[in-house]
Amino acid sequence: MDEFSIIDKYFTGIGFQHPSVVVGSGDDCAVLKQHTDFELCTSTDTLISGVHFPVDCSGAIVAHRSLVANLSDLCAMGASPVSFLLSLTMPEAINSWLSCFADRLSELSKLHQIMLVGGNIAKGPLAVTITVLGTVPRGAALLRSSAKVDEAIFVTGELGMAAAGLKVVEEQLNTHNLLKSAYFYPSPQVEFAESLIGRASACIDISDGFLADLSHLCEDSGIGAEIETSDIFLSDSLCAYAGSEALDFALYGGDDYELCFSVPACFVDDIRKLALIKKTRISQVGSTIAKKGISLIKDGQKIAADVKGYTHF
């Protein structure tokens, strides 16, 4: 099969069909409607075999992690998904792998209402690059640089689960399936994130580790943060696997694709109600402060945080 046959067989017409797309895949460019009351948010990520997913991963896992990693960036802005471009490089065209890849991509596309509008296929080492596009009301995008002093810091989800899941995979254990699932199949906070607009001041997605990503938000906003470690939710699954190291997985582990956001005091109760309505786990883990840097409060003792997380180089 050549690349055109692959596109026709596996990718043409799959997934959600977005009303803002005038011309989708098949032409030299996709064409999208512009809405004057909205702004466009766009982001791109590349996932490489052996770096961002194990070399023997199924097509479904590769598709899932690749699209969610990009959707999470839209979530951090409070953006509503519209469309995405896919660039797939692979060493050979294996029908069973491509079928699983395309099926999972289509499922996620429908679930999160984001349309595949084009891309590219080439031969080479396995890598997936996705570019996502989403919209926010004009001037309303959640930024890393908008946090203020004396705001509450929240996180979504169960931090550390995915990082522990990767460790379980690397150790080739046949147990701890919930941890492995958190790594292979993360869930982007699309609906919850859209509702943060007008309530949260600043937001960032947690992909390289909670403290590492929080430090980016603090640096861009020109503030600091104090984190009460006892307020960080640690799942039973994580504690059963990691024991006394569970907190380290939550603080420093990557691949969560959850959200960290700051909220003015007047919206804290509103955020809690929103989380109940959206059935989203949130934890209030600290507050923003004027003094730059991040401090951890453990057993009543304040210590400077060792800010570390995933880096490529």
From TrEMBL:
<feature type="binding site">
    <location>
        <position position="73"/>
    </location>
    <ligand>
        <name>Mg(2+) 3</name>
    </ligand>
</feature>
<protein>
    <recommendedName>
        <fullName>Thiamine-monophosphate kinase</fullName>
        <ecNumber>2.7.4.16</ecNumber>
    </recommendedName>
</protein>
<dbReference type="InterPro" id="IPR036921">
    <property type="entry name" value="PurM-like_N_sf"/>
</dbReference>
<keyword id="KW-0418">Kinase</keyword>
<feature type="binding site">
    <location>
        <position position="73"/>
    </location>
    <ligand>
        <name>Mg(2+) 2</name>
    </ligand>
</feature>
<feature type="binding site">
    <location>
        <position position="28"/>
    </location>
    <ligand>
        <name>Mg(2+) 4</name>
    </ligand>
</feature>
<dbReference type="GO" id="GO:0005524">
    <property type="term" value="F:ATP binding"/>
</dbReference>
<keyword id="KW-0784">Thiamine biosynthesis</keyword>
<feature type="binding site">
    <location>
        <position position="45"/>
    </location>
    <ligand>
        <name>Mg(2+) 2</name>
    </ligand>
</feature>
<feature type="binding site">
    <location>
        <position position="45"/>
    </location>
    <ligand>
        <name>Mg(2+) 1</name>
    </ligand>
</feature>
<feature type="binding site">
    <location>
        <position position="208"/>
    </location>
    <ligand>
        <name>Mg(2+) 5</name>
    </ligand>
</feature>
<feature type="binding site">
    <location>
        <begin position="119"/>
        <end position="120"/>
    </location>
    <ligand>
        <name>ATP</name>
    </ligand>
</feature>
<feature type="binding site">
    <location>
        <position position="28"/>
    </location>
    <ligand>
        <name>Mg(2+) 3</name>
    </ligand>
</feature>
<keyword id="KW-0067">ATP-binding</keyword>
<keyword id="KW-0479">Metal-binding</keyword>
<dbReference type="GO" id="GO:0009228">
    <property type="term" value="P:thiamine biosynthetic process"/>
</dbReference>
<feature type="binding site">
    <location>
        <position position="255"/>
    </location>
    <ligand>
        <name>substrate</name>
    </ligand>
</feature>
<dbReference type="GO" id="GO:0000287">
    <property type="term" value="F:magnesium ion binding"/>
</dbReference>
<dbReference type="GO" id="GO:0009229">
    <property type="term" value="P:thiamine diphosphate biosynthetic process"/>
</dbReference>
<dbReference type="InterPro" id="IPR016188">
    <property type="entry name" value="PurM-like_N"/>
</dbReference>
<feature type="domain" description="PurM-like N-terminal">
    <location>
        <begin position="26"/>
        <end position="136"/>
    </location>
</feature>
<dbReference type="InterPro" id="IPR006283">
    <property type="entry name" value="ThiL-like"/>
</dbReference>
<feature type="binding site">
    <location>
        <position position="44"/>
    </location>
    <ligand>
        <name>Mg(2+) 1</name>
    </ligand>
</feature>
<feature type="binding site">
    <location>
        <position position="52"/>
    </location>
    <ligand>
        <name>substrate</name>
    </ligand>
</feature>
<dbReference type="Pfam" id="PF00586">
    <property type="entry name" value="AIRS"/>
</dbReference>
<dbReference type="Pfam" id="PF02769">
    <property type="entry name" value="AIRS_C"/>
</dbReference>
<comment type="pathway">
    <text>Cofactor biosynthesis; thiamine diphosphate biosynthesis; thiamine diphosphate from thiamine phosphate: step 1/1.</text>
</comment>
<comment type="function">
    <text>Catalyzes the ATP-dependent phosphorylation of thiamine-monophosphate (TMP) to form thiamine-pyrophosphate (TPP), the active form of vitamin B1.</text>
</comment>
<keyword id="KW-0808">Transferase</keyword>
<feature type="binding site">
    <location>
        <position position="73"/>
    </location>
    <ligand>
        <name>Mg(2+) 4</name>
    </ligand>
</feature>
<keyword id="KW-0460">Magnesium</keyword>
<feature type="binding site">
    <location>
        <position position="43"/>
    </location>
    <ligand>
        <name>Mg(2+) 4</name>
    </ligand>
</feature>
<feature type="domain" description="PurM-like C-terminal">
    <location>
        <begin position="149"/>
        <end position="296"/>
    </location>
</feature>
<feature type="binding site">
    <location>
        <position position="207"/>
    </location>
    <ligand>
        <name>ATP</name>
    </ligand>
</feature>
<feature type="binding site">
    <location>
        <position position="205"/>
    </location>
    <ligand>
        <name>Mg(2+) 3</name>
    </ligand>
</feature>
<dbReference type="InterPro" id="IPR036676">
    <property type="entry name" value="PurM-like_C_sf"/>
</dbReference>
<feature type="binding site">
    <location>
        <position position="120"/>
    </location>
    <ligand>
        <name>Mg(2+) 1</name>
    </ligand>
</feature>
<dbReference type="InterPro" id="IPR010918">
    <property type="entry name" value="PurM-like_C_dom"/>
</dbReference>
<feature type="binding site">
    <location>
        <position position="144"/>
    </location>
    <ligand>
        <name>ATP</name>
    </ligand>
</feature>
<dbReference type="GO" id="GO:0009030">
    <property type="term" value="F:thiamine-phosphate kinase activity"/>
</dbReference>
<comment type="similarity">
    <text>Belongs to the thiamine-monophosphate kinase family.</text>
</comment>
<keyword id="KW-0547">Nucleotide-binding</keyword>
